[in-house]
Design a protein that fits this description.
By secondary structure, the chain is an all-alpha fold. It has one domain. It is built from seven helices and no strands. α3 runs antiparallel to α4. The longest helix is centred in the middle third of the chain and has 23 residues. It is globular and about 50 Å long. The mean pLDDT is 85.
């Protein structure tokens, strides 16, 4: 029997994580070169994903508490904490310590960019025939069952390490 896993591109957290990686790499690469390119500077000044990751972190911590309340297995809880550290806490830490940090002076454009990404994400779900409400209402069950892309990847890696 084949286990059904949800595609990673249907999770907003993975979108935000990819956005953060792109932002961090662009910021690091072009700040090092002192770029005067208008589009690069616009991206660095107005497209910081920090607020989106912080909101996602709060929601994810709430989900973690629900996992504990609903007596999810210890393995799922540990893997979920690893997920939080990997795709939320580490990027937040890096984004907070980018020098100079453009988020501090440009909160409003960054909020607008976050809303724009959320709208594009919802359109992407709609194009793929996914109802966001139904997807996320079933998503918690998928987390408990360990049927999310990240949890599945970590379980496979850990099984290979344990079994050799």
């Amino acid at each position: 029997m084949k286990t059904e896993y949800t595609r990673f591109d249907f999770y907003l957290s993975y979108w935000i994580f990819a956005w953060a990686i792109i932002y961090i790499l662009v910021n690091w690469y072009f700040k090092k070169k002192s770029s005067t390119n208008y589009y690069i500077n616009f991206f660095i000044q107005n497209c910081n994903p920090l607020i989106s990751i912080c909101i996602a972190l709060v929601i994810t911590i709430f989900s973690l508490l629900l996992l504990i309340i609903y007596n999810a297995s210890s393995l799922i809880i540990i893997l979920y904490i690893l997920l939080i550290i990997t795709i939320k806490i580490i990027p937040i830490y890096i984004l907070l310590y980018l020098k100079p940090n453009p988020f501090i002076s440009n909160v409003k454009p960054n909020i607008i960019t976050s809303i724009f990404v959320f709208i594009v994400y919802n359109l992407y779900l709609k194009i793929n025939g996914i109802n966001m409400y139904n997807f996320y209402s079933k998503g918690f069950t998928k987390i408990i069952e360990g049927k999310t892309p990240f949890l599945n990847l970590i379980k496979k890696i850990s099984q290979k390490l344990i079994n050799g």
